[in-house]
Amino acid sequence: MPEIPLVPAHWRFPAHPTSARHARHAVTASLPRALRPHLGDDIGLLTSELVTNAIRHGACREEEEVIELVLWPADGHYWLAVSDPGTGTPTLTHPDANSESGRGLLLVDSLATAWTVRPRPTRGTSVIAGLPFRRGG
After folding, report:
1. Mode of pairing for the β-strands spanning 114-119 and 9-14
2. Number of H helices, E strands in the chain
3. The CATH number of domain 9-132, selected from 3.30.830.10, 3.30.70.360, 3.30.565.10, 3.30.70.2470
4. Which helix (H) or strand (E) covers residue 78, if one does?
5. What pTM did the predictor assign?
6. pLDDT tens digits for 10-23?
């Protein structure tokens, strides 16, 4: 009989700056207790960066828009998808030392085993990133 996969965790948060903190706590708390010492800090930082980027660059502040998160385990990783209603494509940049922003995807790139940007079927964009169950191995 095949192993039945876990149901992915799913959240929706308003496109508001305080949502990054709430999303970070929700995602970290959803990890199994045994994995929190290994993944908690990294997945919290990954969540904060992706949600902050989605709010800043993918949502229209004049509308009541939401940021969606999905977290699921597969293939030895926890995968996090952060989706926003925007149509832009996040790109990795290398800001100079004096820049005050622009380093979010550099953090994502250094933390995640793999990450990508995908258009959503109806409207918006998703950034998907994976962290291995055990860091460094």
Report:
1. unpaired
2. 3, 5
3. 3.30.565.10
4. strand 77-84
5. 0.86
6. 999 999 989 999 99
